[in-house]
């Protein structure tokens, strides 16, 4: 069996990049925030793909260790969706419409 070093390196790079982005996102949530005109959030929501459990575990670990005070103030809520449904979920969030459970993409309201 041969291992393709380019593919292995690329996979590792993608995983590390995703994990780093999640850590930066949580670290910014742990830090002081600015002021905003919108309503205060109830949770720190994070959308993750079901196939990648690393980021969810990292965020959960941080919320129960380094960021416990911040997690009490703004509890972590991780939603997971299959990779195949991620685009639809993001479109629904952007359009602020409820998502349908069908595999057909949702069309934004005009």
Give your account of this protein's structure.
The protein is mostly helical and 110 residues long. The protein is built from four helices and two strands. Strands 1-2 form a two-stranded parallel ribbon. α1 packs parallel to α2. The longest helix has 26 residues. It is flat, with a radius of gyration of 17 Å. The N and C termini lie far apart (54 Å). The model has no long low-confidence stretch (mean pLDDT 74).
Beta fraction:
5-15%
User: What is the spatial order of strands in the main beta sheet?
Assistant: 1-2
> Which spans have pLDDT < 50 for at least 5 consecutive residues?
none
What structural class do helix, strand and pairing data support? mainly alpha
The count of β-strands is: 2
Helix content: 40-55%
Alpha carbon gap, first and last residue: 54 Å
Shape: flat
How is the biggest beta sheet arranged? 2 strands, parallel
Radius of gyration: 17 Å
Secondary-structure element series:
HEHHEH
Number of helices: 4
Mean pLDDT: 74
Key words describing this protein structure:
110 residues; mainly alpha; two-stranded parallel sheet; 2 strands; flat
Structure described in brief:
The protein has about 110 residues and is mainly α. It contains four helices and two strands.
């Amino acid at each position: 069996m041969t291992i393709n070093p380019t593919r292995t390196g690329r996979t590792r790079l993608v995983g590390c990049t995703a994990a780093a982005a999640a850590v930066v996102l949580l670290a910014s949530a742990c830090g002081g925030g600015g002021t905003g005109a919108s309503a205060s959030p109830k949770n720190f929501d994070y959308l993750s793909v079901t196939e990648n459990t690393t980021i969810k575990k990292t965020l959960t670990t941080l919320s129960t260790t380094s960021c416990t005070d911040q997690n009490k103030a703004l509890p972590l809520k991780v939603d997971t969706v299959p990779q195949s449904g991620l685009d639809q979920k993001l479109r629904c969030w952007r359009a602020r419409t409820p998502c349908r459970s069908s595999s057909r993409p949702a069309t934004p309201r005009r």
